[in-house]
Design goal:
Largest sheet: 3 strands, antiparallel
CATH class of the domain at 2-128 and 187-268: Mainly Alpha
Distance between the termini: 44 Å
Oligomer: single chain
Strand content: 5-15%
Shape: globular
């Protein structure tokens, strides 16, 4: 199983290196959005279910050492290696013990990971008290260039999108919206070494972040998964490239997502989320299905808010978690009409700030909440939904 997975994970090196040669070191689009939206906490996943066998004979590749001059240049440019950090080396020993890995190999891998100041800067939370701006956020993702790229992607992969919708019940426009927001359909998949990004966020996460302790634990889990994958597959943990948060490929999967939700949707015997758009399409659909996507359910409904009679404090208390029945929702002053009044499940009042302008609101369903498992942000979810909708409408206008 691990060799099957890492065959594709290794592709995160070659593709990103080519990208780095052609363009500046750029974080993926969704990662850039995290500067104004809650950070990812969605990538808590469950097993892929692939039938490939775990290789018990694969010999882990020894993490390559750079020449001294090259290593010194990289240190000056990107930070100090973790080889002298007792906390990091102790973590390596603990991972080796928990996972049954070679301790010397694990130590060597962690020792060659580097602290990246750029990652720390990018993970800083926005200034406290700053109002978000949905219109500005939306403009980053819904624009003619991205819509046109989405149309091309849909046209090129129509069969895979239709098959994913049939197999998993996830609409093509939702999958197209995710991949478009995350990487502009593979144009920006990240050029950070994943082990550097994950190590930085594991041992030097910005303390100013309101959830620093929780996020540190999360990224340590992802770093452990990356090491385990590489060791058991015979891969080199220093090779994969991705975003500043350690996400990889067209759908920007974290290492645990790769193991639990990625699928070989093109049937070539390996999972490759960087070079196989078909694998990425199936994997996004698999992720949503695994997180409770309900076929045929809308993601949200329009809602009317009357400041004089709507109990906003109560309705907004659960945040984006669907909590209220239609009857309870409307009894608290939130106006619904049409199909929304027949919705069978719980709803959430989703608030979108608009800077100095009045806030916008929608009634989010359980499927809206599923999208926020990919990124815990209502702004992110709406961007995915609206980009997918715009691309679908543009597809309908094609001759």
């Amino acid at each position: 199983m691990y060799r099957f997975l890492l065959a594709g994970l290794a592709a995160c090196t070659l593709g990103a290196q080519a990208q780095a040669a052609a363009s500046p070191d750029t974080a993926p689009a969704a990662a850039a959005a995290a500067a104004t939206a809650p950070p990812r906490a969605d990538k808590e996943k469950a097993r892929s279910g692939k039938s490939a066998q775990t290789s018990k004979t694969a010999k882990p590749a020894k993490p390559a050492k750079a020449s001294k001059p090259a290593a010194e240049r990289r240190m000056a440019a990107t930070g100090i290696p973790y080889r002298d950090r007792e906390e990091a080396l102790r973590f390596a020993d603990e991972v080796a013990q928990r996972q049954g890995l070679d301790a010397a190999w694990t130590r060597q891998a962690i020792a060659q990971a580097r602290q990246l100041p750029a990652v720390q800067r990018l993970m800083q939370p926005p200034p406290a008290g700053a109002r978000k701006n949905w219109a500005l956020y939306r403009s980053r993702f819904i624009d003619p260039v991205r819509i046109a790229a989405g149309v091309r992607f849909w046209q090129q992969h129509r069969e895979a999108l239709e098959r994913a919708e049939k197999d998993y019940g996830v609409p093509a426009e939702t999958i197209v919206g995710i991949i478009g927001v995350e990487t502009i359909y593979g144009q920006h998949m990240g050029t950070f070494r994943v082990i550097d990004a994950l190590a930085t966020l594991s041992f030097d996460h910005p303390a100013s972040h309101p959830r620093a302790a929780e996020r540190t634990a999360y990224f340590r889990g992802e770093l452990e998964q990356l090491l385990t994958l590489a060791h058991r597959s015979g891969g080199n943990p220093l090779e994969p490239l991705g975003s500043y948060a350690g996400a990889m490929g067209l759908p920007q999967f974290m290492p645990t997502s790769w193991v639990r939700w990625a699928v070989d949707f093109d049937g070539d015997g390996r999972i490759d989320l960087r070079r196989s758009a078909v694998d990425a399409i199936g994997s996004v659909a698999s992720y949503f299905k695994g997180h409770g996507w309900q076929t045929g359910m809308p993601t949200h409904y329009p809602v009317r808010i009357d400041a004089a009679r709507t109990d906003l404090e109560v309705l907004l208390a659960p945040d984006i978690l669907p909590t209220f029945s239609v009857a309870s929702f409307t009894a608290k002053g939130a106006g619904l009409e049409g199909a929304a009044l027949q919705h069978p499940g719980p709803l959430a009042l989703v608030e979108l700030q608009n800077g100095d302008a009045p806030n916008s609101y929608v009634a989010g369903t359980e499927n809206f909440y599923v999208i926020t498992r990919y990124n815990q942000s209502s702004y992110y979810a709406m961007a995915v939904i609206e980009l997918g909708s715009e691309v679908k409408q543009a597809m309908a206008r094609q001759p």
